[in-house]
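Margin note: ligand = zinc ion.
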Amino acid sequence: MFQVELVCSDPRCDAEVTQWIEQLDEVAAVACECGHGLVTVRIEGFEPVLAPV
Ligand SMILES: [Zn+2]
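Resulting structure:
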């Protein structure tokens, strides 16, 4: 499971959504109530893919 924080892509809309999803590609299917898409701002709950330099 991934915890994903999303904000609306419309700057006039201040919607913020936190969702729990099974697969990261489910994020693309999420839309704001206002009709705009949601933009991912933070993803937690998974192991980092890139090792720290
Ligand atoms: Zn919105």
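The chain has one domain: 2-44.
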